[in-house]
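Anyone up for a design puzzle?
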């Protein structure tokens, strides 16, 4: 692989860690990204790149030429008002491009509630939240676009992402963590570095029209995670709050769903061993090296 001409719709922690991983492997990168802010030349580490303005209402027309010349596309932009704005604005461009790799980052919220049972990529998708419904519609839009134009598309359904900077230990230290009681409530997570590593592996190991759950090995309750973080930091556990008293609707929606997300397909296909197989390894590393 001589050079990767990659276009990132959205340049948040997932995209940045992916680019960081590619760069660490000494591959030449021609990077373009989008931002809601004004267009400008930027740098990321030692890499210079062009960032073009793109929002639900407008975009810099100059990005079209960069998009046409890119051979790898990563989209991490969430749907807006129920619609995927990348497809809405650029589906005609995808028809005439010579793309080798497209990855759409979705979310495991598409599964909805499974009462604590395991789900895999063949499980029923019955989203309960607006976010989950919109994500599932976006997946269908991407798959439809890929079918019509014979595009190389894979979909990653991401569990909750945490990183060395954004994690339960940081929230505990800032006083923003609480224990929310709900029986039989499970959720899954993935360290952003593992996500970046899997994205990198998929550059060479790719099968079009496939969907993969991206999660670690140990789904757990929010309470268990908070208690382990409190123990690591040697602080008192935060207050316990009844779910019925939570006013934040997004948080309420999160606790509607309980499921354990299987990562077997991901690990087998990409032949990947997780660097942080559970929250224990992830939080221990953060505690010993970052916090």
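Challenge accepted. My sequence:
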């Amino acid at each position: 692989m001589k050079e990767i001409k990659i276009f990132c719709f959205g340049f948040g922690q997932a995209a940045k860690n992916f680019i960081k991983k590619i760069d660490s492997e000494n591959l030449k990168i021609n990077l373009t990204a989008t931002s809601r802010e004004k267009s400008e030349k930027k740098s990321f580490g030692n890499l210079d790149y062009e960032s073009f303005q793109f929002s639900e209402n407008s975009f810099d027309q100059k990005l079209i030429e960069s998009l046409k010349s890119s051979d790898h596309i990563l989209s991490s932009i969430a749907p807006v008002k129920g619609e995927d704005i990348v497809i809405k604005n650029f589906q005609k461009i995808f028809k005439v491009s010579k793309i080798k790799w497209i990855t759409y980052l979705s979310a495991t919220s598409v599964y909805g509630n499974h009462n604590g049972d395991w789900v895999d990529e063949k499980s029923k998708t019955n989203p309960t939240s607006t976010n989950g419904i919109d994500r599932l519609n976006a997946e269908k839009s991407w798959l439809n676009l890929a079918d019509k134009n014979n595009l190389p598309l894979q979909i990653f359904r991401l569990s909750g992402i945490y990183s060395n900077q954004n994690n339960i230990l940081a929230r505990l230290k800032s006083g923003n963590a609480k224990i929310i009681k709900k029986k039989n409530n499970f959720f899954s997570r993935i360290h952003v570095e593992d996500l970046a590593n899997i994205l990198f592996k998929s550059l060479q190991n790719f099968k079009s029209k496939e969907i993969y759950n991206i999660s670690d090995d140990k789904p757990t309750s929010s309470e268990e995670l908070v208690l382990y973080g409190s123990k690591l930091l040697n602080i008192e556990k935060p207050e316990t709050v009844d779910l019925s008293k939570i006013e934040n609707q997004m948080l309420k929606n999160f606790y509607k769903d309980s499921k354990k997300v299987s990562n077997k397909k991901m690990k087998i296909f990409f032949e990947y061993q997780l660097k942080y197989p559970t929250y224990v390894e992830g939080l221990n590393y953060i505690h010993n090296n970052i916090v």
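A detail worth pointing out: Residues 3-164+190-216+261-274 form a domain with the Rossmann fold fold (CATH 3.40.50.720).
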